[in-house]
From TrEMBL:
Active site per database record: 87
Family note: Belongs to the transaldolase family. Type 3B subfamily.
Catalytic activity: D-sedoheptulose 7-phosphate + D-glyceraldehyde 3-phosphate = D-erythrose 4-phosphate + beta-D-fructose 6-phosphate
CDD domains hit by this protein: Transaldolase_FSA (cd00956)
Encoding gene (name): fsa
Stated name of the protein: Probable transaldolase
Species whose genome carries this gene: Dyadobacter luteus
HAMAP family: Transaldolase_3b
Protein's pathway: Carbohydrate degradation; pentose phosphate pathway; D-glyceraldehyde 3-phosphate and beta-D-fructose 6-phosphate from D-ribose 5-phosphate and D-xylulose 5-phosphate (non-oxidative stage): step 2/3
GO cellular component, one term: cytoplasm
Superkingdom of origin: Bacteria
Amino acid sequence: MKFFIDTANLKEIKEAHELGVLDGVTTNPSLMAKEGITGKDNILSHYKAICDIVDGDVSAEVVSVDLEGMIREGEELVEIDSKIVVKIPMIKEGVKALKYFSQKGIRTNCTLIFSAGQALLAAKAGATYVSPFIGRLDDISTDGIGLIEQILTIYRNYGYETQVLAASVRHPMHIIQCAEVGADVMTGPLSAMEALLKHPLTDIGLEKFLADYAKGNSK
Ligand code: E4P
């Protein structure tokens, strides 16, 4: 399973990259705003800064909701760097944009997916990735991981190449559950990735190994 980090924070992206497990980055307009990145030029150069850190795909979201606007923005975004994947919302015009970009060989990530039907449409339109938001579904007492499983089944039934990118991941158990059901990618915060490496028995065991080593080498 690929690990993407879901942030526009350069420090966190660098940290995840240095950990050696980072396969890409996803951003959205809210994450950009959270970092205080506003205005088209600043946003475009921030995407470039992200691409300069990571080796994998970087999702950059359009903010137009009409087809022409999405095409214009998407074509501009892919000029920034070959790592850019155009993130398109799951709306009617977005489906048309997915088809347009897929015919042009431009990679896309269809975002704001909350149902299997939406994921089926996105795959038929040629999306490279679909992003079902599992955390936001869990927030409303709906089974986010169940949706990932359902989409994977549908894609396998017909051999769709669209990758299932589990988004809105909030904690380490989400990551483990995504891996159990076979999500192609998960995107989440650095804290959830780092939480995977923690275990109290590891800390206790290491403390004892180091203490025993120190005893044997203290002369
Ligand atoms: C997807 O790519 C989105 O950026 C993201 O995962 C949404 O997560 P949130 O529900 O934590 O805002």
